[in-house]
């Protein structure tokens, strides 16, 4: 009986050692993962991978994430980038892809912030779109003429067929003339509005946002294929893409409102030369 008890005790101690080894191994992997993520972030902040302004905002984002101020966004999300560790070149390229995505989102958010000061022209454009549909309903039917040029060509054609200009005063011609001036106005108004940078961004902002998110994932997939990095499932399932997007779109405008360009000390720069 005593031998059996000692045997069970030995087995129990063996299981305890196995569990301890498993826990230690798990802890080591967790620590290694955290160190890899910290390495990615430090290199982004210390190697001037981002312009000065964007680097400050990236640093703010990291501080907020580490301080658990952003729902659903954890520092472990950046482990996706740390997976690209086959070589220094591959690691640098992965960080570069992340930085480019971050900068592009900042540009889009900055344009949206500017649009808040350009609401008047956006409202004019929306009013124009509503008005053109209503005005088209008021035009005479069966007398379509799409432009002033088309109207002039028709006038030349009628002039050949008639010696006098009485045709210019017929109701049919006047209706055609009304159509021509209306569609000429539409064309010029469209050209005016759609040449405005704020309107261009307003019309394409959703497309631009989705394009940048897709490009970020595609670039990482290409890098994974090229470097034989096992990260395709991680890229597909990672929340990093959306979390960075949400943070930038929500916070960059407020950051810009408080941001001040750094003063350059030219004397200090000259003294260093």
From TrEMBL:
Taxonomic lineage from the root: Bacteria, Pseudomonadati, Campylobacterota, Epsilonproteobacteria, Campylobacterales
Biased composition (Basic and acidic residues): 13-25
Biased composition (Polar residues): 1-10
Residues covered by region (Disordered): 1-25
Protein name, per record: Uncharacterized protein
């Amino acid at each position: 009986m005593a031998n059996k008890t000692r045997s069970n005790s030995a087995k129990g101690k063996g299981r305890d050692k196995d569990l301890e080894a498993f826990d230690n191994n798990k802890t080591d992997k967790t620590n290694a993962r955290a160190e890899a993520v910290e390495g990615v972030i430090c290199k982004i902040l210390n190697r001037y991978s981002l312009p000065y302004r964007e680097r400050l905002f990236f640093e703010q984002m990291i501080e907020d994430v580490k301080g658990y101020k952003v729902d659903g966004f954890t520092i472990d999300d950046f482990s996706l980038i740390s997976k690209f560790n086959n070589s220094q070149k591959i690691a640098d390229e992965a960080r570069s892809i992340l930085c480019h995505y971050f900068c592009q989102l900042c540009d889009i958010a900055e344009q949206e912030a500017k649009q808040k000061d350009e609401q008047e022209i956006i409202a004019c454009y929306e009013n124009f779109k509503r008005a053109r549909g209503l005005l088209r309903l008021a035009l005479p039917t069966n007398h379509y003429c799409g432009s002033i040029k088309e109207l002039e060509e028709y006038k030349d054609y009628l002039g050949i067929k008639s010696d006098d200009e009485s045709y210019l005063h017929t109701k049919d011609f006047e209706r055609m003339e009304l159509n021509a001036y209306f569609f000429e106005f539409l064309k010029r108004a469209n050209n005016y509005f759609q040449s405005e940078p704020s309107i261009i961004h307003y019309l394409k902002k959703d497309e631009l946002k989705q394009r940048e998110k897709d490009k970020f994932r595609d670039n990482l997939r290409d890098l994974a294929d090229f470097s034989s990095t096992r990260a395709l499932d991680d890229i597909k399932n990672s929340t990093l893409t959306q979390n960075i997007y949400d943070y930038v779109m929500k916070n960059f405008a407020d950051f810009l409102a408080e941001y001040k360009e750094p003063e350059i000390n030219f004397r200090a720069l000259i003294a260093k030369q």
